[in-house]
Amino acid sequence: MGLFSQKKLSRGLAGEPVDADSSTSFLAEVWDWMKSVVIALFIVLLLHQYGFHLSMVKGSSMQPTIVEGEWLFINKTFRVLGGPRRGDVVVVKEPAGSDNDSPYLVKRVVALAGDEVYIRQGKLYVNGEESHESYTDSPIEDGRFEPYTVEPGHVFVMGDNRHRHASYDSRSFGTVSVDKLEGRAEWIVWPISKWRAL
């Protein structure tokens, strides 16, 4: 034991003394950065899985409201914060047995649990009243749909494109369990010129 500092010095290439602690502080700084990056990635993954994400539209079933190639802001927390409402644009897990390339569909909720829905003369009726759908540009061209009461915990979804064979929806695969709703599309965010709330 002496009165002098116990720091060990090593010689650099030019014979300059180098503090051995500087390499340890560099490694500590790298380790801190790595921890920050891992934590940030973890938060991003959590938000993507349970909070919000962006999704690109494929197909024409939601025209004229949404067109292929547009990007949507999807809110995944809506089930906790009140659940689906009539008129919501939602992302639905592709029903089993379908031959579509995409694992998800974008559709509009037109009827909720307990609602009776049917189609007559190109018009959609919910609980006996004609549904006024300003987001469509044509009558329903696929013919009649017999009265059907939506079961508890489910919704009836349709595409906004009402031309013949334009939308694969609840008329084909039945009602959708609320658990199969991935999220609610709330904004078109790309291209910028189309930015607007849904």
TrEMBL record:
Keywords annotated in UniProt: Hydrolase, Protease
Domain of life: Bacteria
E.C. designation(s): 3.4.21.89
Stored Pfam families: Peptidase_S26
InterPro entries for this protein: LexA/Signal_pep-like_sf (IPR036286), Pept_S26A_signal_pept_1 (IPR000223), Peptidase_S26 (IPR019533)
Subcellular compartments: Cell membrane; Membrane
Catalysed reaction, written as an equation: Cleavage of hydrophobic, N-terminal signal or leader sequences from secreted and periplasmic proteins
PANTHER family: CHLOROPLAST PROCESSING PEPTIDASE, SIGNAL PEPTIDASE I
Family: Belongs to the peptidase S26 family.
Name of the protein: Signal peptidase I
Organism of this sequence: Paenibacillus konkukensis
Taxonomic path: Bacteria, Bacillati, Bacillota, Bacilli, Bacillales
